[in-house]
Design goal:
Helices cover 37% and strands 25% of the residues. A hairpin with a 4-residue loop joins strand 9 and strand 10. The chain has 2 domains: 11-52 and 203-286; 54-198 and 288-322, Vaccinia Virus protein VP39 (Rossmann fold), CATH 3.40.50. It is globular, with a radius of gyration of 20 Å. It is α/β, with parallel strands linked by helices. The strands form 3 sheets. It has a 7-stranded mixed beta sheet, sandwiched between helices. Strands 1-11-8-7 form a 4-stranded mixed beta sheet. Helix 2 (38-47) packs antiparallel against helix 9 (213-229) and helix 3 packs parallel to helix 4 (93-100). It contains 10 helices and 13 strands. The structure holds N,N,N-trimethyl-histidine (AVJ). The site of N,N,N-trimethyl-histidine (AVJ) has 11 residues, from strand 11.
Length: 323
């Protein structure tokens, strides 16, 4: 197994982003990628098995049920699979097994969490006919390295699962898919997962579970700033908030300051005042309509080949081919 290429998320970059996000005018924010340090990634693994978080299981069910159809749609002699944000790759095994039945494949998980990437490489590296080449890089950097290493005749299949596309603003999502498309050549493929609109009674508990795992996942970013940036956040003075913005069609996660307070973050060279009720916005999770995901792909240079919907949890997987 190859050693992963080094992380691009240096401490100073984290410090700079924190400083920018917490000292700018208006809504304070921290990018959701910072939720996934070692503790955050472990908590996210727990989220995936919570009964309220149906999203992960829907994705896994669709992969399991449609692995053979997806494999049958790709008609090349050699296949390289690049997964953007693989996590531990638990649900991806189904698809890799189906693909590797026909021929040996290369699998490149692209993931910023070193722990998750390590586990992913170990587990999926045991599959027959699968050569794992992990990349600890941001999505597009990783994808460009995979594309640069491709040999003539190899077809690239990009996996963007888990509805991570939902973390982008609407316009940014399309821009991102366009950038993915630019790293590809005609005939390459993209499998895109998207969580769909559903009743709030189902959606809200998925992002605010009664056990408090999602709250811990969210609050961990404050603990991470304490650990890595010497900050003095009092975690008991913040609480997790999940709300739905109907106009933007997204769940927003925030950390709400329950009192007025000032927090010092020495390694980000700042001190940040909070008024009571003020929030730090930590994540958005947009919810799609099935046709919308196809449209987004089309506008980004892909042709939708097939779309599958889960029977239990409103969720879509769409297979595209690069035009
Ligand atoms: C992994 C980004 C798809 O938005 O549903 C889960 C992350 N946040 N619970 C999502 C998450 C809170 C998840 N994604």
């Amino acid at each position: 197994m190859a050693t992963p290429t080094l992380a691009k998320y240096s401490l100073s970059e984290f410090a700079e982003d924190v400083r920018w996000g917490l000292t700018k005018d208006g809504q304070k924010e921290i990018h959701s990628k910072y939720l996934y340090d070692e503790v955050g990634s472990a908590l996210f693994e727990v989220i995936t098995v919570l009964p309220e978080y149906g999203l992960f299981r829907a994705d896994e069910r669709l992969l399991r049920q449609n692995a053979e159809s997806i494999a049958a749609s790709l008609e090349c002699q050699a296949i390289v699979v690049a997964e953007l944000g693989s996590g531990t790759g638990r649900k991806t095994a189904w698809l890799l097994e189906a693909l590797a039945k026909k021929q040996p494949i290369v699998y490149s998980p692209i993931e910023i969490s070193a722990k998750a990437l390590d586990q992913c490489s170990k587990e999926l590296g045991q599959l027959h006919n699968v050569d794992v080449r992990p990349l600890q890089q941001p999505y597009l950097d990783g994808l460009l390295s995979v594309a640069a290493a491709r040999k003539p005749g190899e077809q690239l299949l990009v996996l963007f699962l888990g509805s991570t596309i939902g973390n982008f603003e609407w316009r940014a999502a399309e821009l991102f898919l366009t950038e993915v498309r630019q790293a590809l050549i005609p005939g390459d493929a993209l499998l895109l997962s998207a969580d769909l609109e559903k009743p709030l009674s189902q959606l809200l508990p998925a992002y605010d579970d009664p056990l408090g795992v999602t709250a811990s996942f969210d609050l961990n970013v404050l603990a991470r700033m304490n650990r890595e940036l010497d900050a003095d956040f009092d975690l008991s003075a913040f609480r997790h908030l999940a709300r739905y913005d109907a106009a933007e069609r997204r769940i927003e996660m925030h950390l709400l300051s329950t009192r007025s307070q000032r927090v010092t973050i020495p390694r980000a060279h700042c001190s940040v005042p909070f008024i009571e009720g003020e929030t730090i916005w930590t994540e958005s999770s947009h919810k799609f309509r099935p046709e919308e995901t196809k449209e987004m792909g089309r506008r980004s240079g892909f042709r939708p080949l097939r779309q599958w919907l889960d029977a239990e949890w409103a969720f879509a997987q769409t297979l595209f081919v690069a035009e």
